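Request: When convenient, would you put together a sequence paired with its structure tokens?
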Amino acid sequence: MHGLPDVASVVEAVAPSVVLVRSTLETTDASGRASAGISHGSGVIFDARGYILTNHHVIEDAVKVDVVFSNGQPVNVEVVGSDTATDLAVLRMDSAFVNDSLVVTAIGDSDAARVGEWVVAIGNPLGFEGSVTVGVISAKDRSLQISDRVRLQDLIQTDAVINPGNSGGPLLNLDGQVLGINTAIIRGQLASGQEAEGIGFAVAATTVIPVAQRIIEEGRVIWPRIGVSIDDVDPVVAAEHGLSVDRGLLVLGLADGGPAQAAGVEVGDVIVAVDDAPIAKFTDLRRLMLYRYRVGNTVTLRVIRAAVTLELEVTLDELVF
């Protein structure tokens, strides 16, 4: 008989690396009078140089950001940069607090994580600092539309309870490694009238690692783009559209004057490979753009058009949000 997970040991090891993120926001009332407000989120120290991961939306539009350690010590930080497309941000604490006693939590391998695996969330929901919740990985490789222009990808779905203020905190495995950064919840009555409960999302470590590296190196993530709107192809989509393949990316639209349009890509094409890399779903393309390519690179798209395979050269330009 298997025993229950040792959550307490995970919390004892990781909690000192989880911080409260305080963002000062300025607002103006109808009379033009300015006032300041404070919003709270979470973050986790992931690098011995004093770098902290959190969410973009936690620090967005802030005029000042600081953090509070688990022992109550406030710490000045600078915003190194953030990325709207992945809802991630990196902070760096004042060098006076970077020393050998700094607790750093390692980023784990979210690809190796299994659905049904135990996970632990630590954060500051609704201002209750250092709160711990436990659940399992409900699914992997989810996506979530959060605005007209931004759809988060490569998400881990979990039933560990996540509330406002948990944003930016770590989702951990039982080895105390960060599998994801908590970013969103679905709760309450949906437009369909159905009630949602226990559906939380974290940006997977496979996205977190390269995004954090780019932000540290360049201050932001410069995303290359092909210039298409797309949908994943599966057997159902293939049957609906009469496609000759049941995996890939169906081109639904082209950016006017964008790289794909200039290369001769057409609506209805199915992208099945970029250079030597097969593309089965959007996450595959997203990871390639993040790991391998830069703006200005020329790639060869392999597309299926009416059962005919074509290879088209596309020069990537920058995706602007």
Remarks:
- The helical segments are 7-14, 56-59, 205-218, 235-241, 259-263, 282-291.
- Residues 176 and 206 are 17 Å apart (CA to CA).
- The two ends are 51 Å apart (CA to CA).
- The chain is about 15% helix and 45% strand.
